[in-house]
Amino acid sequence: MITKGSNQRNKKRHILVCLIIALLTITICLLVRKESDSLFRIFPSEKGFSGNGNAKFKLKQIHRHGVGSKHEWHQKLEVDADFVEQAGLLYERQVRINQKTYDEPLWTNHHEFATENPFAYEFDISDDLLDMKRMADRSPEFIEGYSEFALSSPEMAAKVQIDWIDEKVIVPNITDKKTEVSLALMSSNAYVRIPHTGDWRNISRPWNRSESGGFGWNDDGLRGHVFANEKDNIVIISIKGTSAQGLPGSGVDETTVNDKINDNLLFSCCCARVSYLWTTVCDCYTKSYTCDEACLEKELRKKDYYYSATLDIYKHVRKDYPNATIWATGHSLGGALASLLGRTYGLPTVSFEAPGELLAAKRLHLPFPPGLPSYLEGIWQVGHTADPIFMGTCNGASSSCSVAGYAMETSCHTGRVCVYDVVKDKGWHVNLLNHRIHTVIDDILNQYEEVATCVEPDPCIDCYNWKYIPEKGASSTKSSSMTKTTTHTSTGTPTSSCVARNWFGLCTRYE
Ligand SMILES: *[C@@H]1O[C@H](CO)[C@@H](O)[C@H](O)[C@H]1NC(C)=O
Ligand SMILES: *[C@@H]1O[C@H](CO)[C@@H](O)[C@H](O)[C@H]1NC(C)=O
Ligand SMILES: *[C@@H]1O[C@H](CO)[C@@H](O)[C@H](O)[C@H]1NC(C)=O
Ligand SMILES: *[C@@H]1O[C@H](CO)[C@@H](O)[C@H](O)[C@H]1NC(C)=O
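Structure for Putative lipase ATG15, as requested:
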């Protein structure tokens, strides 16, 4: 039997050990931060540089990053004349085959942007300056170290003093139609399948031919296309979106399986546990409308998913272009990942038709500047009212998303939303086909005389009928009797047991 005395001694020792660990972690955090401070502040592009006005951007690199068991793989291809030529030939062939199956090209139908070769295309971009509030230290060491720390010790992380600075940042001129179209074309460019040839450089561990099944490594993972202007002082990373099987018009690629897993992880209330019929993508569901929050947060951050792969691609691009201003863009899943990346590192970001990513941003504890109005965030979400994925209405048992096995349950966005109301203006019907990037470019962005005004989104709550508990089985909560519906308005009262979050989104108080 353990006596009371030894019990108390054990307790004291336990507290002491905890305190020592905490102090060590904070010291390391502060040290890392000191070092990276000096690295960061010399960026000339972020000091006094006043933009380029108009510039032409070209594809410079293609990254592919493994996920799942191949999450350590990261390869890069520098786009040179040889590659452009080969890729052009391959594209011609793809279009020919595609015409038989989809009767539409992969790129765009519109004559104004027609090209024989999307890999050689020149994108017209105009830039602008925006006052942004960002973390003073945005080095990967600090940001990732800090968010790891926040995940494991939320209370202590909340007490670490973070420096925020106000600065003028070069951002895309989002009021310029040509710029918006170019960014959408870049997002579309990331979907175009790349040839299996070319001089891929192994960035992470050597590419193992026998492990990859012997025929190259296109079958898996995340793709990022990197564009730069002539001066190399603005670089744009475009993240590829979902290639979905069963979703009309989104194309089929070798990445389909992983795209679906990541969609279901990022945009569902709880691991895509929609009903008992669904295969879940993680094991955080505890019981009826009850989900383990800590489990979800760990899951999202795992190295073998797309979010982590996106950060890796960014880190590498930042090494290659240390003096450049980096922006992010993407369509659909790619847009949401771009937005999560942008929020992580304070990068100006423009997404197209992205599903609601606010919930994922909170679960990942991404920096939300304290007391900051969202117009200072430098994140723009372009979308339209006839796209059920952007509007967050592609759910419910009979929706095309659910039928195809996608649990797109979220609808809340971060940053500013720039919405084309095609339902009102053009009488369009809500249809998944309208989610396609070509439809968006050809029939919306290019058709409207004026670009959509970007506004702060309405207050919004996702998954309001779910309870999120701190740890699996930690407390018994009564199950909600509400039926399973999600909302994209703020009409629902949140019954989630997380009642307070700190500035970086961490749950600090449970009901
Ligand atoms: C942004 O684009 C608009 C429309 O083309 C233009 O009038 C404005 O001057 C541009 N802003 C900058 C800073 O170039
Ligand atoms: C990448 O790794 C693979 C397998 O180890 C190797 O065959 C290939 O030559 C490497 N590529 C480069 C450019 O080093
Ligand atoms: C490649 O993968 C195979 C199978 O997993 C393994 O046996 C082999 O040692 C690996 N080669 C290298 C160079 O890592
Ligand atoms: C970045 O700027 C620094 C300081 O101005 C310079 O020394 C360095 O060569 C530049 N790097 C690149 C890749 O242009």
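The first helix runs from residue 4 to 41.
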